[in-house]
Amino acid sequence: MSVQALFQPFHLGSLQLPSRVVMAPMTRSFSPGGVPTAEVVEYYRRRAAAGVGLIITEGTTVGHKAANGYPHVPRFYGVDALAGWKRVVDAVHAEGGKIVPQLWHVGSVRKLGTEPDARVSAYGPVEKLDDEGQLRVRGMTLADIDEVVSAFAQAAVDAQAIGMDGVEIHGAHGYLVDQFFWEASNTRTDEYGGSVANRSRLALRIVEAIRAATGPEFPIILRFSQWKQQDYSARLVQTPEALGDFLRPLAAVGVDIFHCSTRRFWEPEFEGSDLNLAGWTRQLTGKPTITVGSVGLDGEFLQFMVKTDKVAQPASLETLLERLGNEEFDLVAVGRALLVDPDWALKVREGRERDILPFSREALARLA
Ligand SMILES: Cc1cc2nc3c(=O)[nH]c(=O)nc-3n(C[C@H](O)[C@H](O)[C@H](O)COP(=O)(O)O)c2cc1C
Fold it and tell me: Fewer Cβ in 10 A, N or C end of the chain?
């Protein structure tokens, strides 16, 4: 089996990647007070040293008071956190790798009591009260939306300033940007709700603001998904036509690469074609795409954290290589397999698959 397709360089303007292997963004919760530690620096450095072409960091919160939803998630604002990220960037670059932060706002899933200010409620597309009638989610005003757009733009400016190679906007999995995309969570009646164009308006404004603030060359990746953490079977779009209508305006305002989050890369997105979400997205937008989902995994871990009612039949690495070789997609993100084994890419390249460490739940408890 030739694994060469995975180890071809990839060029897109100023972004020059040494391989097609991308580290998928994975929240690790090892940044107390929101500051990436020396351990975090080493964690990313090891993956760059072992042949990962592009690291997408764990979700890191933009500078808005309600952006965070979980303990020990790194911030992407504040002198201390940005200094920590600068050390990560320098370490990755020293190994010949590239890195972008995944910019994150969790939206309505934030709970009272969460860092950095425990008293701040969640912000989301529409107001929600809890069973006692207390405000649980603040329905965002137009001024709130402006603030969040500015926070994303500022994070991108800071990313550029510390030498990051671009940014990824987290527009997937039922967090803020996706809560606006999705009809079920966005029932607004103003210009941010209703039609697809309206539901995309927050994302469009974020992309536009980042593009305006960072210039024409700074790579912008948008991660999106059909599935939501609130509902694995949710679908934003039902047809290729609807997917094209959704994505083309985002490409037009400045998205350079679409990161198409699926749980299994081999599953066809629509009936009547083998193309997966990344395949369709590439065809419909003409933009490069990243595929993701259970690369290098088998057995029970196909179900772990990505539960589904379908019985999972793992696809081989050969299938992945063939589809990459056929240019169905451009880049391949690897999540859990890289979380447990920093040398995953190197072992694949050298044909040492037997040496790859198997995924385990215990792996989540440390930064290997
Ligand atoms: C521990 C863990 C944390 C994750 N955190 C994030 C995250 O912060 N942002 C995101 O977009 N996806 C996140 N994901 C999803 C992964 O990026 C990826 O899409 C998913 O794990 C499927 O890829 P895999 O099968 O190669 O693991 C996370 C997944 C895991 C296992």
Answer: N
Query: Where do the domains of the chain lie, and which CATH numbers do they carry?
Result: 4-365 (3.20.20.70)
* pLDDT above 50 for 127: yes
Asked if the model's pLDDT at residue 289 lies above 50, the reply is yes
pLDDT of residue 304: 47
Return the residue whose CA atom lies nearest to atom 7 of ligand 1: 26
β-strands 15-17, 122-124: how paired?
Answer: unpaired
pLDDT, residue 232, reads 87
- Pocket test of ligand 1: the residue of 21, 22, 26, 221 to mutate, having most ligand atoms within 8 Å of its CB, is 26
Reported confidence tier of residue 312, pLDDT bands at 50, 70, 90: low
Please say whether the beta carbons of 225 and 235 come within 8 A: no
Question: pLDDT tens digits, residue range 152-186?
Answer: 999 999 999 999 999 999 999 999 999 999 999 99
The tokens 């009272």 sit on which residue? 112
The pair phi, psi for residue 122, each rounded to 5°, is: -75, 155
Q: How many of the other CB atoms lie within 10 Å of CB of 10?
A: 18
Measured over the CA atoms of residue 271, residue 198, residue 100 and residue 107, the dihedral's sign is negative
Reported confidence tier of residue 222, pLDDT bands at 50, 70, 90: very high
CB 8 within 8 A of CB 39: no
CB 32 within 8 A of CB 68: no
Query: Can you read off the two tokens belonging to residue 82?
Result: 């940005």
Instruction: Return d(Cα 53, Cα 331) in angstroms, integer.
Output: 9
**Position of tokens 């500078």?**
63
